[in-house]
# Entry
Amino acid sequence: MKKLGYLLLLVGLVDLITSYALDGGSPLDAYTGAVAPYTAWILLGLGSFLVAKGGGDEE
# Structure
């Protein structure tokens, strides 16, 4: 679960950076629809939750 959490954190950071850096917004905005302004924050929150929860990757 930690690996998935880190992947979601990475995608969330890329989404957050590109939403401010590009004039048209993030490339994920076309797929997320109504929650497009919050996609980066949702991904960052879910990723940090999964990293904190951990579970099974330490063995």
